[in-house]
Write a structure and sequence with these properties.
By secondary structure, this protein is of the alpha+beta class. It has one domain (3-167): Riboflavin kinase-like (Elongation Factor Tu (Ef-tu), domain 3), CATH 2.40.30. It is 21% helix and 24% strand. It has helices spanning 3-8, 37-42, 55-58, 144-162, 165-168; strands at residues 25-30, 47-48, 64-73, 88-95, 106-111, 123-134. A six-stranded antiparallel beta sheet has the order 1-6-3-4-5-2. The longest helix is centred in the last third of the chain and has 19 residues, at 144-162. It is globular and about 50 Å long.
Length: 187
């Protein structure tokens, strides 16, 4: 299926009313530098998790775009705003990114929030709750506009899906409570 054919049939909400196997999938790892393409080329900055962090995902899921929640875990003294360290909606690409000809599988998470500060090296926790669409091959830079359009649709679909009560409750999952954003200053 070409990206154009796929786009013509895109639903605004996907998946069942509550997560079904293999979801939820819990991920955790320190954010590492990726290729720097998401923010620069596509207007959609992503955080890359290390290879060993994505094993729970890559062993049970197909390549494509997923949705769920994520949180950046920082010491309270690091100058992040309170809203920067909340549990927030996310979309994640798991794949080879054929447009860029990657040589290894990557997991790139876009947290739907405008961060003013980079968070490389900080821990990120995520819970993946559902599948949006397969990975598509955007064959040329001229088609990158289609990729940007699909990313924007993916974000809207993710937000629509996460509005369902059985998904929304995962924003309060204990996965996000462990060691989160503790105040390390002396009292």
């Amino acid at each position: 299926m070409t990206p154009t054919e796929f786009r013509a049939e895109r639903p605004q909400i996907v998946g069942p009313e509550s997560p079904e196997a293999p979801f939820p999938i819990f991920l955790v790892g320190k954010v590492q530098r990726g290729f720097g393409r998401g923010g620069k080329d596509l207007g959609c900055p992503t955080a890359n998790l290390p290879d060993e962090s994505i094993t729970p995902m890559s062993s049970v899921a197909n390549t494509g775009v997923y949705y769920g929640y994520a949180q950046v875990v920082t010491p309270a003294t690091e100058g992040f705003k309170p809203e920067d360290v909340e549990v927030l909606p996310m979309v994640m690409s798991l794949g080879w990114n054929p447009f860029y000809k990657n040589e290894k599988l990557t997991a790139e998470i876009h947290i739907m929030h405008d961060f003013e500060k980079d968070f490389y090296g900080y821990e990120m926790r995520a819970v993946v709750l559902g599948y949006i669409r397969p990975e598509l091959d955007y064959v040329s830079r001229a088609i990158s506009e289609a990729l940007i359009e699909d990313i924007e649709i993916d974000k809207r679909v993710a937000l629509n899906c996460l509005e369902r009560s059985e998904y929304r409750k995962y924003s309060k999952d204990p996965h996000f409570e462990d060691q989160c954003n503790v105040d390390t200053t002396e009292k």
